[in-house]
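To close the chapter, one final illustration. This time we ask the reader to focus less on the individual chains and more on the assembly as a whole: which components sit near each other, and how the overall shape emerges from the parts.
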Amino acid sequence: MQDVTYRRPATVQEASQLLKDNGPTARVLAGGTDIIVMARERRRDTRMFVDIKAIPELMQLSFSATEGLTVGAAVPCYRIYRDETVSRLYPCLLDSASLIGGTAIQGRASLGGNLCNAGPAGDSIPSMIALEGEAQIFGPNGWRTVKVEDFCTAPGRNVLDAGELLVSIKFPAPRPGSGARFLRFIPRNEMDIAVVNCATNLTLDGNTVTAARIAIGAVAPRPLFVPAAGAALVGRPLTDETIAAAANASRDAATPIDDMRGSVRQRKHLSYVLTERTIRDAARRARGEIVSHV
Amino acid sequence: MSSRIIIQATINGEPMEFLADERDSLLEALRERIGLTGSKEGCNNGNCGACAVILDGRLVNSCVVMAAELQGANITTVEGLANGGELIPLQTAFLEDAALQCGICTPGFLVASKALLDFNPNPSEYEIRYWLAGNLCRCTGYDKIIRAVQHAATQMRA
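The assembled structure is written out below.
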């Protein structure tokens, strides 16, 4: 690894100052599962690690009925799936947190890091979009909020400006009658990068959909929020026809590339299939059924 | 130049103070600064699990942890599993069930399995396979490893 300085600020102000003073070669270190590898392989010029795990707001994991859920940007995945409240109220986050990497990766990797890396296939990002996540950002000009669907701008690029850091992601309390589900397609059982992934968050009144948010990943330069897919369901009963209309909207929105993981045709097809499956599972969860995250 | 840093941490139950380079990973610090060579370098990028250790109660790959992060941490490596000279049931089961061939992946599998049984003393075969998915073995085909973990779990519950 190249020579690197390690700093461990205690406040968001101190972290922001370090990032601002040291420029783009100062990298935020949360779980390190990507950033340490990139530094070691010299894929990114890295002169300083700014370890944010001593900052209380970055490690916060808390829920209240009025404030909803706050996930500090450095909270590792294992804390999410071992938290009883999060497991019960946000099973869609468990779907994601329990299949990112393997167990040893989940001991370190965070949803915030996954979001900041801005990989088109990031496995927590569709879930955070579907759950109406909002990124809380601190920087030289103070605080600002960006919706998760607007956070990634291109592969590996995000909205953070010089000196800014992602502090936490906030989610509203689940609406009564709502349920959400994330699924990923890979050609093996674990430890792979999504060919396509998808999350759906539905609210039902009887069998009528009153709200729906659907996001798909690995089919565009950034994780894709598909408002048209949700709009195909809202105000309508959940039937094979309305589900197919939503799934078609996802397939139409997908603009994937051909690569070693999948072809354009396969990814378009999977956008349809995973949208349909996540809608059906989200509806089951909305009705109080247990849909296991594995 | 990277500077030398002094790390105070508890390793395998023993409070330690050691000198590391600021750019050392936890794996490099264990192997090269402290002389604990049980943790292996396989891929050195977080994919193979050969360097797995338990850090403050959760399983991590030590190649993707910086040594500088360890101030005050509690770490268990494969060297810390046995009670004195006595192997724990997991280690005995790996020997009896021939759950290893070349042995490079074994420290990682032992540590990962220990973390699993600490968390879930009665895992199903599926849960064992899911938990160990981040540990790669190119010799055994995994079935013997899974059986060894099942045997150890049975013995430990007895």
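The two ends of chain A are 37 Å apart (CA to CA). The mean pLDDT of chain A is 97. With these observations in hand, you are ready for the problems at the end of the chapter.
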